[in-house]
Specification:
Blueprint lengths: L5 E7 L32 E5 L7 H5 L2 E3 L19 E5 L3 E5 L5 E5 L5 E5 L30 E8 L5 E4 L6 H8 L17 E7 L2 E7 L14 H5 L7 E7 L8 H15 L8 E6 L18 E3 L8 H10 L1
Parallel strand pairs: 1-3, 2-4, 9-11, 9-12, 12-13, 13-14
Antiparallel strand pairs: 1-8, 2-7, 5-6, 5-8, 10-11
Length: 322
């Protein structure tokens, strides 16, 4: 099933139950007064943030959801039952936008967080409410109110402490597999990773979440390659880890790669360059000579090899520190 990180859904809260038209009829009481109960409340639409949900593919194939209606009122002054809320699970990092106004309605960031997106309609009144001294047998009731409805765009932005940024085939998947228990696919061709992968590393008792983001290309901020679809997954990362092919095995110069990546992030959102960052010079096992000190001037650089394991422990300590 393809990874889905943006969908449009139509949602409707439940309609309230109708009020009941009823009169008391018992033995020896042939003409009792009105006793129609009220209708129950329609169900709300509630979004639940769930750490076990990985993407929004569920809503790609089921874009319309309607909450149940409230139960109608009954005789003997029995009110109808309120409908149970419709609970829709979404992954951590889901932003909800109203499609008409384009405004951000809610963000669900932590497991268990709930957002009551649409309210169900109130139940109608039974005829017992319309009894008076001049109207002892009222036949008036009211209908249940309709629930709120709307169309929303759900957009998933991965939440991680660390985001891996780099060109295709720079070794990001190999690195996250070395650092964490993730099982990102590794192969000797570009765009092996097509979906964000999250891995977790424990360092001194603390859990650090790392996101393996699909490789960027020059022009990603203009939506080339996988472009904007995955640039947004880097936005919420607290720290950026630039993975550079130090050996230039793809025919590119390491310094040019770093410069181009920084430029793409600045074009997309200049605030992203204010985040703390580390430059990982990967594939040093393929280098014929020592990595030039000027390749990333002014940056914190860690020479590393996922094949030999050189630099992995040092990187883990840096991640914990930052």
């Amino acid at each position: 099933m393809p990874f889905v990180d943006e969908v449009t859904v139509k949602l409707k809260a439940g309609t309230g139950g109708d009020g009941c038209l009823s009169f008391r009829r018992e033995k020896f009481i042939p003409k009792g007064g009105p006793d129609g109960g009220d209708g129950g409340r329609g169900a709300d639409v509630v979004l639940l943030c769930d750490e076990n949900s990985s993407d929004l593919s569920k809503y790609e194939y089921e874009p319309e959801h309607k909450a149940p209606n409230g139960q109608n009122g009954m005789g003997a002054q029995c009110a109808g039952k309120d409908a149970r809320d419709l609970l829709l699970k979404v992954p951590e990092g889901t932003a909800v936008y109203d499609t008409l106004s384009g405004k951000l309605v809610a963000e669900l960031l932590t497991h268990g967080q709930e957002v009551r997106l649409l309210k169900g309609g109130r139940g109608g009144l039974g005829n017992i409410h319309f009894k008076s001294s001049v109207n002892r047998a009222p036949r008036q009731t009211t209908k249940g109110k309709p629930g709120q409805e709307g169309e929303f765009r759900l957009e998933l932005k991965s939440i991680a402490d660390v985001g891996l940024v780099g060109f295709p085939n720079a070794g990001k998947s190999s690195l996250i597999n070395c650092l964490t228990n993730a099982q990102s696919k590794v192969a000797a061709y570009p765009f092996t990773t097509l979906n964000p992968h999250l891995g977790r590393v424990r360092q001194s008792g603390r859990k650090i979440v790392i996101a393996d983001i699909p490789g960027l290309v020059e022009g990603a901020s203009e939506n080339r390659g996988l472009g904007l679809q995955f640039l947004r997954h880097i936005e919420r990362c607290k720290l950026l880890l630039f993975v550079i092919d130090a050996a230039g095995s793809e025919g590119r110069k390491p310094a040019d790669d770093l410069k181009a990546l920084l430029q793409e992030l600045e074009n997309y959102n200049p605030a992203m360059l204010k985040k703390p960052r580390i430059v990982v010079a990967n594939k040093i096992d393929l280098l014929a000579k020592k990595l030039p000190a000027t390749f990333a001037k002014g940056e914190d650089v860690i020479p590393l090899s996922c094949v030999t394991g050189v630099g992995i422990d040092k990187l883990k300590k840096w991640l914990e520190k930052l």
